[in-house]
Amino acid sequence: MERKKILGMSILLLASCAPQQPSNQFTLNGSIEGVDGQYVYLNYASNDSTQINDSTLVNNGTFEFKGTLDKPCVQGLLYMGNFNDRQNKQYCRIFLEPKPITIAIDSKNFSEPKIQGSFAQAQEDSLNAAIKAIEEEAAELYKALETETDNKKVAEIQEQLETYQDRMSKARIEFVKSHPNSFVASYYMHFLMGKMAYNEIKEIYDNFSPEIKKYGDVEDIEKELATLAKVQPGAPAPEIRKEDVNGDTVSISSLKGKVVLLDFWASWCVPCRKSFPHVKELYKKYHDKGFEVFCVSDNDSTPDQWKEAIQKDGLEKFYHVLRGLRSYKDENGRHQFDRSKDVSEQYAIHYLPTKYLIDRDGKIIGKFNDEELDIKLKEIFGE
Hints:
Blueprint: H1 2-17, E1 25-32, E2 39-45, E3 51-57, E4 62-68, E5 74-81, E6 89-96, E7 100-106, E8 109-116, H2 119-137, H3 139-147, H4 151-178, H5 183-192, H6 198-207, H7 210-215, H8 219-229, E9 241-243, E10 249-251, E11 259-265, H9 270-286, E12 291-297, H10 303-312, E13 319-322, E14 326-329, E15 335-338, H11 343-346, E16 354-358, E17 364-367, H12 370-381
Parallel strand pairs: 1-7, 11-12, 12-13
Antiparallel strand pairs: 1-4, 2-3, 2-5, 5-6, 7-8, 9-10, 11-16, 14-15, 16-17
Helix pairs in contact: 2-4, 3-4, 4-5, 6-8, 9-12
């Protein structure tokens, strides 16, 4: 009897001394069919936003990464090849959690691995499956768009594709709204909030669980809400004061007493260019009643194209400035952006064209598409 007790205690002691994975450590065990002797890299952010770029050698098609996470869930990038060379880089994204995770990669389809062990990854895989089903429905249209040369038919195809794109966007938004405790939801908000209204973004953010607000990818969402709050109807329009196409200084504040259409555009933006004939009609109709057009262009790196588009489209009567985004290469040769003088940041611009209307007191009336703009200007000026 005593011997059984000692044996039992020994087993318990051995179990308690067995190595256990720390609570904040992840293990990523992977396989890549047909690969041996090549390096695979894992990039992810630590708690202080420092980028960790780990590497390991693939041995007979298998590899392993171990690391610690300061958050319950972090998105990482797993890749092979040169990180800065898109043509010679294969990669996939993965949600890392402090637990054992496995990943199986087909070297011919690196971007769609099979991942197990990550709850967040399972959520994203489920969302991606729903999106892929919609993409497959539109596959024939995408093929037709690649080969079609007739401009009228191209426009018709693009219009049909917009229906599918709207469905995909709605599917993602519905996922975000129905998963307030999901790290995947907070991640996807980065790509969705640019086309969402302030109240909709705020409702989603307010519904996020305390854990997501503490550890989730919410910093940019909070920044977006703070920026949008400053350009809501009734708020003073943030000042824009820059040199125009002729080198003269122009500003939004100098146009007080006028109703101003603030139009964010670019010479390379086809919908922007297509909207200008209509904007010119509005200018002709309401200018004598106190209507001005102030254009901000995303052409800082191509000013000659900006000037050429203004002349070609007959926009000389409008006010024109560049947004102020400066691009440069860092010490590692990577492209970086200096946004310190970027006026688009002040207005939370994510898509072009974007049009704001400013009243005679210099206050925001709202953000409008072309149809809404017609209605509002008729309301302000009358027929």
